[in-house]
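Case study.
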Amino acid sequence: MPSRSRILAALLLSVFVGSAQAQQKASPPSDNIVARGEYLARAGDCIACHTAPEGRTFAGGRAMPTPFGTLYSSNITPDRETGIGKWTAEDFYKAMHTGRFPDGGLMYPAMPFASYTKVTRADSEAIFAYLKSIPPVNQRNREHDLRFPYSNRQLILGWRTLFFNEGEFKPDPTKSAEWNRGAYLVEGLGHCGMCHSPINALGGTSQSDAFKGGLIPMQNWYAPSLTSNREAGLGDWSIKDITDLLQTGVSARGVVYGPMAEVVHNSLQYLSDEDTRAMAVYLKGISEPSPPPPASSALPTTESSLLISLGKTVYDKNCASCHGAQGEGKPPHWPPLANNQSIEMQSAVNPIRMVLNGGYPPGTEGNPMPYGMPPFAGLLSDNEIAAVVSYIRTAWGNRGTPVSAREANELRSAPLN
Amino acid sequence: MFSRCAVSIVLYLAACDFATAQAANQPPDTMAARVEACTPCHGNKGEGTSDVYFPRLAGKPAGYLYNQLLAFKSGRRKYPPMNYLLEFLTDPYLQQMADYFADQHPALPPVAATDASQEVLQRGQSLVTRGDPQRQIPACGSCHGPALTGMEPGIPGLLGLRPNYISAQLGAWRYGTRTAKAPDCMQQVAARLTEEDVTAVAAWLANHPAPVNAAPAPKGTYVLPFACGSEPD
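After joint prediction, the assembly is written out as follows.
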């Protein structure tokens, strides 16, 4: 009998453990500067740019296409000849804080120093201590390949005057410690604003537009606004749904794909439960009352109603088996489409791309075997894609607008990675 | 003791109920459901689709499939729709995907009619079965097996594929857009082929019926003529 009850207890435990989404994640001990630096380097997602595909970790050389030409990330291993082996902690802080090399030279703002300037000296020193602890790699930095006139580094001075505000993060005394921790991570190391803010023709963002969303240049994914509840504003999300999304890549409200899958994969999944929660509290806090829904579609009414009725046919045949007849999905793995902001928002780029290219959420500790969305580019015509996207944007109470076959066609040639 | 047991049983049943209720509203907990993203191009069981450029995956050696998934993930093998899908998946998960498709055994497609001439087919057969020693081209069968069904863990079978796919892959090796672990033996072999060779090999392979047992030979069944990064000793 005793042995049987132990078996039952074991079964019980396995049921509960099995249903847990993610294990508890704690911050590294504060007395271990290297471990803390490694954690903070994850929070800053340094690896995403400073490691080339199949390249050595942090040895740089990753090509970063921009509207102005191609930049190549630099070697930040402690190699004395080609990396940052000769830098001091002061040099590193200056780079993070002011966007200047030790010799005073100007960094291109692809390095997110406009965000990293908010990082505290203590955190900068921890990251530096970590980078000094990794194996040095002797790999010379590759010259940038920028078009004239952007190849002239002096132009960065103008960019800095317009868009760069130097200064460490200043806590808002009217807000909680948790909110301020979240703000520090989102605005600083997380450099979320690099994608989630509109970028103007000069490659800059004005401060008043921070987190208002924008099309990511060259990648052709739309990084939704983090403040508008009509986009990715999280005002009416529960804290748990936000932390699930950030930590595991999937949630009851939606799933990350594309560039955001990269961020969860390389960075956010490693953050502690406390820090993830702090980011969630801050992100929920910055959402603003929704603006009125956009004016009705540019498409003539007859055309859009034809599209939408074709869309329902396409949907019932290809999509309903996973996303449900009413767009309810089977969250978190098969995301709901009804009442899903990323489907309804003004830019239809992401839903069109998802139908064309499909996608997998990132494999994370909390969701190691994600379910994938099939690509339909080869199965559906431009018209069918426009129809089904128009349908999901307007059915079940969704308040998006129809899209045209031309928009669908244009995104067929969007770069995939 | 008894009451503690009873409590555990009740709790356990409650937990089961909860789990069942959750499962009903969840996708099937299977690999088949997880790899649905692969099916529009590769078929429900990896049998291939009507698109002649997308290969059959079913029954290929798991090690070969895993190597391809890793190569697509890292960008070593370039095909943006695949690179994009796999970029943020973990290696153990890719291994599970490879195992899944290796375990599928849908019927092989009937051999399609060919419009290649007898002369082209004969040239193809000669290259596949005998190679061309003068040009240092080995017979395909010397690595892919006498029955051309491949060998575990890393060498794929060559039958049941369509000519367009085979010639596209040989072309990709010749031009360097498809590469494999060093020593990249297929790159070396393909570099010695002319375009006419590629057409002839693809036409003959696609026109050659697979044996009833198309399973890859067990690891180490025969010795490879040269070192191959994809098939370590």
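Observations recorded in class. DSSP finds 18 helices and five strands in chain A. The two ends of chain A are 59 Å apart (CA to CA). We will return to this complex in the next lecture.
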